[in-house]
Design goal:
211 residues; Pnp Oxidase, Chain A; 9-stranded antiparallel sheet; 36% helix; elongated
């Protein structure tokens, strides 16, 4: 990922927080049949001595399943909030529009998980993570095993120990505090939830500078 130094985010806790918040990410692989991408929800486990481990699952009918069987490397792209930035929001307006955004690239070599009990455990974790906040009444563990087992034959899970992790938080760090405050005010007045999230991230950066 193109990374001008002002935009690089290297704090592991910050990157992990972003990966958990933006957990519906893009899995990219390149294999014998070309480049493939799938959009999947990922679980993240932190490590004491590493960058973390990602876990997800996909259909065996997905072309990426063969890439995974072939032992290919994978890139997982987490996309955070983003917003257009107008030069009219700067004190000095003799410049061009830009786009503020957050993105995290996580790379590693996936390890396939196809044994039924291990697959079941991955699905149970995922359901617990996403079903609990919506207070759904559906109970995965109440599903009859005879109903679940055939579907487990149709999917594969993967565990990706991360070997690379890059974060790019492009939030006008190369502009003056006055310019950044102008962008924040405009984004907050925008009324768009995503623009407001960008503004909050920018404001937290300014607070760190001025404290």
């Amino acid at each position: 990922m193109y990374m001008p130094p002002p935009y690089a985010e290297n704090d592991l806790a910050t990157l992990h927080a972003g990966m958990r918040e933006w957990s519906f990410a893009t899995l990219v692989t390149s294999g014998a049949a070309g480049v493939h991408a799938s959009h999947l929800p990922f679980l993240l486990d932190a490590q004491d001595d590493g960058l973390g481990v990602l876990t997800t699952h996909l259909s065996k009918k997905n072309a990426q399943y063969q890439d995974l069987r072939d032992g290919c490397e994978a890139l997982v792209i987490f996309q955070g909030p983003h917003a257009y930035v107008s030069p009219s929001w700067y004190v000095r307006q003799s410049t061009f529009p830009t786009w503020n955004y957050c993105a995290i690239h996580a790379g590693g070599r996936p390890q396939l998980i196809e044994e039924h009990e291990a697959l079941h455990a991955v699905l149970r974790r995922r359901v617990a993570l996403y079903e609990t906040p919506v207070k759904g009444a559906w109970d995965f563990d109440a599903m009859p095993l005879a109903f679940v087992a055939p579907r487990l034959d149709m999917i594969a899970a993967m565990r990706i120990p991360l070997s690379t992790l890059e974060g790019k938080f492009k939030l006008n760090q190369d502009r003056s505090v006055e310019d950044r405050l102008g962008v924040i005010a405009a984004l907050e007045a925008n009324g768009d939830a995503q623009a407001a999230r960008v503004a909050r991230l920018m404001r937290s950066g300014i607070n760190a500078i001025t404290q």
